[in-house]
Design brief:
- With about 240 residues, the chain is an alpha+beta fold.
- Helix content is about 35%, strand content about 30%.
- It contains 9 helices and 10 strands.
- The protein has a 10-stranded mixed beta sheet with strand order 1-2-3-10-4-9-8-7-6-5, sandwiched between helices.
- α4 packs antiparallel against α6.
- The longest helix is centred in the middle third of the chain and has 16 residues.
- It is globular and about 60 Å long.
- The two termini are about 25 Å apart.
């Protein structure tokens, strides 16, 4: 089935939807839904080895846009250790906002600027950060400091029922990259979560983001799952 992405449509000013790859979609239903809702953009996320879904999407003029690689690591319980990370507050947002500009150039949005627009992509991630600081999107944001200066951040969403946490946004200020601060941030994050009722930490990144994948592997994460993002746009339909 397809579902409308109301928030995304309002934010990006185009009619957007998503294919649910967990239930079958027929071609007549697909085209009827497109025409009924005058869709401009459709996204689909499927397991990388789901050949049946991949063939259907490609037959409907979807284009593979990105690879989503999900990593996981175990969290041990140890309330005695203290993390150097601190919770971000609304007071920190201006600093984080400036730090974030252009930071997510490898994201699945940034690599398709002709669809989403670079200014809107930057705005999206800054809004994500702002809502995570207040706990209205991700649950909280942690920052790492060097000489009292914020040089990095990570947002976290916890699922206390499953005892899992997921990293939303993670970044190091450009001028402090390539000096081990990313690894330090991940190490301190695990220490922070050791005092929480969390057994597992999960994070996803793009297949083109070699630096991020190598960092997670270096820090002891293992690949949990690989999925493919597929995009359909009205312009591609009209070109056929």
């Amino acid at each position: 089935m397809l579902r409308l992405l109301h928030w995304d449509s309002n934010f990006f000013a185009m009619n957007m939807a998503e294919v649910s790859t967990t239930s079958p979609v027929t071609s007549p239903y697909f085209h009827h839904f497109i025409d009924e809702h005058q869709l401009d953009f459709i996204q689909a996320l499927c397991k990388i080895d789901d050949i049946k879904t991949v063939r259907f999407l490609e037959s409907e003029n979807f284009q593979m846009a990105d690879i989503k690689v999900t990593f996981e690591t175990k969290i041990n319980t140890n309330a005695q250790n203290k993390s150097s990370l601190v919770l971000a507050t609304e007071h920190d947002f201006p600093v984080l906002q400036n730090m974030m500009t252009g930071l997510f150039k490898e994201s699945r949005y940034s690599c398709y600027q002709h669809i989403f627009g670079i200014e809107k992509v930057d705005e999206l991630y800054k809004l994500w950060m702002e809502k995570s600081i207040t706990g209205s999107f991700d649950d909280y944001c942690l920052v790492i400091k060097l000489n009292e200066e914020i040089i990095g951040f990570v947002t976290i969403k916890e699922n206390l029922i499953d005892r899992k946490a997921r990293i939303g946004l993670l970044g190091i200020d450009l001028k402090h990259q390539s000096n081990g601060m990313g690894a330090k941030l991940l190490t301190e994050l695990k220490v922070f979560l050791e005092s929480r009722p969390i057994d597992q930490l999960v994070v996803s990144t793009q297949g083109r983001n070699y630096n991020a994948m190598n960092l997670y592997i270096k820090c002891g994460y293992r690949i949990k799952e690989m999925e493919s993002w597929y995009y359909w746009t009205r312009s591609r339909k009209e070109d056929v």
